[in-house]
Batch of 2 targets.
Target 1
Amino acid sequence: MNIIAAVDQNWGIGNNGRLLVQIPLDQQMFRKDTLGKIVVMGRKTFEGLPGQRPLDGRINIVLSTKPDFSPKGVIVTKSVEETLSLLEGYKDKNFGEQDIFVIGGGQIYRAFLPYCDTAHITQIEYAYSSDVHMVNLEEDPEWMMTEESDELTYFDVIFYFRKYQRIHE
Ligand SMILES: NC(=O)c1ccc[n+]([C@@H]2O[C@H](COP(=O)([O-])OP(=O)(O)OC[C@H]3O[C@@H](n4cnc5c(N)ncnc54)[C@H](OP(=O)(O)O)[C@@H]3O)[C@@H](O)[C@H]2O)c1
């Protein structure tokens, strides 16, 4: 299972329910990586999507404990366990572990990190004001950076695409 996130220097991912910054190349990469796949997100991240609509061309799974939360075009699950058993069922429909992307936000990254072995991280070289953070994989001995792009820029924003992998003992 994959994690995909854009983080700042402090591994911040959002502020006031919104992304820290929108970088077109990052958004294109996100679309390319997740199209045709299964995306797993929290209710707050879903509500931050444009028009509160599911991401097109992807199976959208949204976690929420709210009994009346049932937006069109998404599958709502009520727990991590329910989500994992739903995902298990997709394995019979030709989706493998590599076809599942945990797309945020902070609560959901934290809850699913133990089940993930690959993280696609867009690292932005700036410290924004941020009220939600992703686990810092640089400080986690179970994870190692295995790929890194050249330095990329969007106006004055410097960023890198990095891939981290869980180290199997
Ligand atoms: N930089 C990035 O790549 C990136 C990506 C995604 C999001 N973000 C940012 O992250 C922020 C949102 O993150 P967040 O941590 O506040 O919220 P979140 O993880 O998106 O959603 C939290 C909600 O998910 C539901 N939930 C969480 N754990 C659950 C569980 N075990 N079982 C059932 N439901 C569960 C709950 O919904 P109910 O309250 O309905 O029960 C909870 O309130 C925003 O600022 C967003 O822009 C950044």
Target 2
Amino acid sequence: MTTIQNPQGSFELDATIQALQAIVGPERVSATESDRDQHARDQSAHPGRLPDVVVWPQTTAEVSAIMRHANQVGAPVVAWGAGTSIEGNPIPVHGGIVLDFRDMNQILKVHQNDFQVTVQPGILYKDMNESLARYGLFFAPDPGANASIGGMVANNAAGIRTVKYGATKDNVLALEVVLANGEVIRTGSRSIKQSAGYDLTHLFIGSEGTLGIVTEATLKLDPLPEHFSAVTAAFPTVNDAAEAVFGIIGSGLGPAALELLDTKTVTLMNTEEGIDLVIAPNLFMEFNGASEAALNEELSMVENICNESACRHFQAGVGREARNRLWQARHRAFEVMVRHHPNQAYLLTDAAVPISQYPVLVAATDDIMEELNLRGYILGHAGDGNMHTAIFFPADDAEARAKTEQINSHIVQQSLALGGTSTGEHGVGLGKQKYMEQEHGPIAMKLMRDLKALLDPNGILNPGKVLGQT
Ligand SMILES: Cc1cc2nc3c(=O)[nH]c(=O)nc-3n(C[C@H](O)[C@H](O)[C@H](O)COP(=O)(O)OP(=O)(O)OC[C@H]3O[C@@H](n4cnc5c(N)ncnc54)[C@H](O)[C@@H]3O)c2cc1C
């Protein structure tokens, strides 16, 4: 008999495995080392931790029964989508049960005339969009990695198209959620406008699996654009590029994507991805239009704004193939960086500020990295004020690690001072907990802890995340 001790109490592993097998069948429960190891870490550099057992549920009723059991015995439960988080969000730091949603990956209904879809949480958004293309529709938030809808809802993921279409939170209408005690609730409705009571849907969005388990989501879709143009624009400095971002957004133009890449990132993408960008800080942009004429008019305004920020090279009208290559390369930028720095640890910052403050944040980041003589890659979803800095360092170099943490902390402090946030899209996970009190204040933090205690009194849902120990 194996007793598992954790801050929630202790539970008998063998009895829990038997209970899980009774719920889902023995073939969908595993305590093998390799299955546990595959659910021990996400894509971040946060240290992994093996769960005690992994389960692959197929229905809401199974999830409900699992939660009832876990709540009774005090076993931690961590939901698992695709494991692509980069802040330690799904790492089962207290062990327990990992609920892997791989087998709950169906499109339940396409509401074609309402531009909506109802799906299970384990569906990967790229697979979903491939199926939706035949209806001429797509789900706009795109975090780049092939994340699951459950993970995107739980992290409130965003991506290159957020500047036009919003983040995940702006594109979810309704949820089915299993609570910590196994009860099942439905939040929201399929109406675009909703004003009926407290907004429980958005309480669960971004809660990183700490308040409930999402078993179904109804999502808002958009028509696939018919006319589009991709643009690249190169600038003398990152700051000039950031100023152009402010100009483009400030002039009321509506880019469908607006990404900033510094010289180091551009150099790497040229060599590793075979694209041919001017070696300088670049903006990648995409514009969609109702007609070619409207699009061309918009593009000439964009070119003028870029020229006002000393643009060195402006290329618009990139064809479909080149446009796809550009976005694929952008999506792969982080993976390429990781490959380029084998055996190194990394830290990826995620500050986001109001758009008017974006040039200030970028300049301050450039300065501090120079001051500490630590070069990182600056890239980000510039159109919505979100800046990532990827800093690589030797994993066993304590001094470099401390310097990197110092930069992260400096960037977060800058962002908060500029009216922004410590994390625009990656979530709190493990890495941003230390900034939560400062960002929200003690009274709001107490309210968050009270909400957690109300919804999860035994503290079994993804313990140790968002609020730390509660
Ligand atoms: C190369 C790369 C690029 C990325 N780019 C972006 C980007 O541009 N924008 C962005 O936002 N993110 C980005 N990410 C991060 C990541 O893809 C997102 O955070 C994504 O939302 C994680 O989804 P997932 O399915 O992998 O979830 P997981 O990592 O498996 O889980 C994420 C969180 O959701 C919880 N969870 C999972 N399923 C459920 C459920 N059914 N119910 C309740 N909770 C659940 C987990 O417990 C965990 O807390 C990137 C990651 C990589 C590796």
